[in-house]
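Q: Is it fine to ask for two folds in a single conversation?
A: Yes, each is treated on its own. Send the first.
Q: Here.
A: Result:
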Amino acid sequence: MKSITDKQIKQWDFISKTLLKDNRSQHRLRDIGNKMFLSYNILDSDADVANNLSKPLTELDPVFLFRFLSSCVIDEELAEHSERLIKDLFKETEIKKYKNDKVMNIKKSCYPLVLNDVIQVNNDQWLCVIDMKTIFEMGDNQIIHYNPETQRQSRVVHTSAGTYNKIAVNKKSVTEITNLMKKGLFISNTITLNINADIVENNFYYDAENKSLILSSGFMDIIDGFHRYQAMLNAYKAKEDISFKTCALIVNFSVDKAKRYIIQEDKKNKINKAYIKTLDGSDLINMLISRLNETSYCATYGQINNIGKYNKTYMYSALERTYKKMKERSEVGDAAKELAEVINEYDDNMKLKNYSLLDLYIMCRASKDKKKIDYKKIKKEHNSALFNSKRANITSDMINITDNYLI
């Protein structure tokens, strides 16, 4: 790096303060972080990036600084400032080296990477078990890559500063998986790693006699299981005693074949997300449903399932919307008692064979908000489309009309 001047320090202070000044900046910072990941395959956490931004220019690692500034080109306000700072701080040889060396952090000592007990499924597919430590080391050594060409969690974003790929990571999902792994409750399922056949630097072979797959150079694209991969990295970094292994399908596909594989996987029959939520026995809403189903004096007794009088998926959606602030198991019993009274009253007045999602939502709202129900109005309008809707989730129309039925 060149010598740092007061002018450059002021330029850096402007960039860092702009990105740390308000809540809106969090989204800008996240987009820049995504660009860093796609350009250099380094995924720093939001906290790591923010921590570096808080440092004086003189204390920053040159490699991080170059990566960060070059990724600021996607930000309209900062693009010109960052490009000028790169030219002022870095020599031409450094710019060329840092700009083109996406895998500069791969350690030569990590090769050959040997995976044992590998079964060959096809001439371009192998199956093995990998533990969390090995996954972390592969990620730390930049052997596992994110390739936007073969990822479902990627989308193209167009701005006046240019076009770039954005990683659509569901951080809530990653956190939930991480916590389940820490508790030993996450059920392992297969991730897919692709030794990209289009990359000439990817050299590997399969030793059939010893059932080993040896990668002598190159890297693997993760084409299915990115959220689980991120969760494994987080769980391992937590330095807790976690014994976790995952099945890995390792393939040697071209980009075109990898895309076809993703399309094929995406065509699998989808399970309704609302129904999936009803399967989690540790969820407080499901505990409340179980309590109602087991309460002998309530009309729901033994009737909450997916074919009975009270549809379980509908019941979950209605309760989740109204009782989502429940935090402790001790709250479940009180909520069940309050609900039982309203449900019994509703059943006595309506006497229906099956209750719709809107019916259940009205009951839950009346119980939670401690309000009376206008049964005359409901009976008059019960043939409407909203009462006969087959949707599994509460809509804004259902929320609005429920206000008309509560006194």
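Q: Second one now.
A: Result:
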Amino acid sequence: MPTTCFLLAIVISLFAHPAWTGPVFRQQVTPDDVMSLADLMEVHVEVASLPSILDSLGITLKDVESHLIDRLMNNSIQVVADEDAPQVKLQIEATYDDASPDAYAFCATLSLSQPVHVKRVDRHLHTPTYHHTRLGLFPKGDTAEMILMCINLVTDDLANKVMIATEQEAQQAGDGQGTTEQATTRDQEDS
């Protein structure tokens, strides 16, 4: 009984003293590449030309672009014609090995480029701030469906990171550390 009371007293005292528990419950820091996605609501879309081996599977550039646009819009990211908007670029690579011609390997990479200020060279540049890649190896007959699934995965990852960054930005704004204060600090550092 005395041991149980002693352990209970230790547990209670840990929660009674926030300074002791602070490091245990430290807030996770979101990386800058993810934070650069905060409040991303619209993008311009570009799909790189597809590997010719996908022609035999009936996969067209138009179908891939349409699927990507639909997935972005389903994730509340509007697609615009404005080429100055942040740009989502999808690139798909595919290959097969002659030793196993019934299996296709492919890679889908989604990148987001946006205007940034590079302090070192004192220039505003349009540069990639986010990449996500998925790889797949599937039987030839399943490859077309799996490529569309890969597009879903890389697009959903972007949308999830946008949501995380936007929520964290809103939380910081509510804590008095919001975007206006951060922008002012960054502008002062840049000058």
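Q: Anything structural to flag on that second result?
A: Two points. Residues 56 and 140 are 10 Å apart (CA to CA). The helical segments are 2-16, 18-21, 32-35, 61-74, 143-174, 179-190.
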